[in-house]
UniProtKB/TrEMBL annotation:
Pfam families: GATase, GMP_synt_C. This is GMP synthase [glutamine-hydrolyzing]. InterPro entries: Class_I_gatase-like, GATASE, GMP_synth_C, GMP_synth_GATase, GMP_synthase, GMPS_ATP_PPase_dom, Rossmann-like_a/b/a_fold. The active site is at residues 78, 165, 167. It is an enzyme of class 6 (ligase). The gene is guaA. It comes from Microbacterium aurantiacum. GO terms for molecular function: ATP binding; GMP synthase activity. ATP binds at residues 219-225.
Amino acid sequence: PVLVVDFGAQYAQLIARRVREAGVYSEIVPHTVSAEEISARNPVGIVLSGGPSSVYEEGAPRLDPGVFELGVPTLGICYGFQVMARTLGGEVANTGLREYGATDATIITENVLLEGQPVEQNVWMSHGDQVAEAPAGFTVLARTAATAVAAFANDERRLYGVQWHPEVKHSDHGQQVLENFLHKAAGLPADWNSGNVIAEQVEKIRAQVGSGRVLSALSGGVDSAVSTALVHEAVGDQLTAVFIDHGLLRKGEREQVENDYVASTGVRLITVDARETFLNALAGVSDPEEKRKIIGREFIRAFEKVQADLIAEAAAEGDPIRFLVQGTLYPDVVESGGGSGTANIKSHHNVGGLPEDLQFELVEPLRTLFKDEVRAIGRQLGLPEAIVGRQPFPGPGLGIRIVGEVTADRLEILREADAIARAELTAAGLDNEIWQCPVVLLADVRSVGVQGDGRTYGHPIVLRPVSSEDAMTADWTRLPYDVLSKISNRITNEVRDVNRVVLDVTSKPPGTIEWE
Ligand code: XMP
């Protein structure tokens, strides 16, 4: 792989994705790895990410200098560029001149790294320190008004660096810098694509499970749908998929899984109707954390019950179930390995997130993949667009979108309102501009309204459209007024007991995306 060395910026994952978009497989490693550890992974290229620190600071992240002696083509970006400069004997200085945002850069020397690019171009900068002098043996390739050394190269050693961020779309020719580095400087072919990933994963899954039987929990979401389909592609009917209907799903989701998904994959599916159990367990509860815990617990119970049945059945056939599919994605792997503790704001619960004491070996075919890659694979496997293109939906479902106690009646109201909002957003062609749009029922709030000739005393529905890259931060999406108006009219006209629609205009932080 190409190894992306993470200096602690949020940019490492973005770089890894861009490298893959260039058709080259990449993985992220922390900057603390030694040159030997890096070498042991046989990298075909190395990219050093940006980072929030100054190379001068006490405890600023460093890199084992041996990494530059491995003979592996290496590209330093921003902080990574400065680390490379300093480690190899160049000079990094704090001139007090900061560059932030769109900046004009000028190419001053032709080089493979910036090949095919206009001499003047717009790049995205974010730095205080700068490389004042390139190390011996390096040629300066570009400058800006404030930065004399904005890019450099040592072709003989195949070491390159840029002060700007080629991985962000605001850098006009950023992706081409990465592609020049990968394809031209490092000579790597573009052969990482969803077709190859499927073939590779199918082979891996077969090697792991052999003739063993496999269980999978489908949630209706993208990750479990694609991981299950991949495993089915690999081992066919050795796989049994279980779908637990907890009654907190959106309108039409169960049918999508039971009909469209099964039709397109041929997966053998067992649906467990646990709606009543969940409602009974949630009766009288309005505290959000309490609800989450109950939903998580009931999910595990329901799963264990069906699993016990299946295990008994399989054992009777002398063929026990030994494997469990999980839709773990690469960002989860990177973030949980990252170690640095982030505050637990909400106890996120994944339906499909299962108890630890299960006696199963996990099959995780998406462990190396980003979400957009998972979607591409799902499409290639022929899954319904309604599932593959689905926006994120929390495991506890509509249970945490009813502020107040969850009842069958309230779920019915929310399902209708949500279906209208989704349909209108799709009809307006806004799906790609919105990360997700929770629709929330304020079940304990009533307000006075007038409908027809009469006074009403109904509930408000909240629309929470947000734009985001990764759900860690978000901004409220500026939806067109006419679309909002249509949604509002339809909901108040068509959904009983709702007489008001309000818009949530809070970013995250301070608000979270969900209301509970
Ligand atoms: P918040 O509300 O924390 O949500 O800003 C961030 C993202 O996570 C989703 N979310 C969940 N997903 N289980 C999940 O699988 C959960 O318990 C859960 N709670 C929130 C939320 O929809 C958003 O995409």
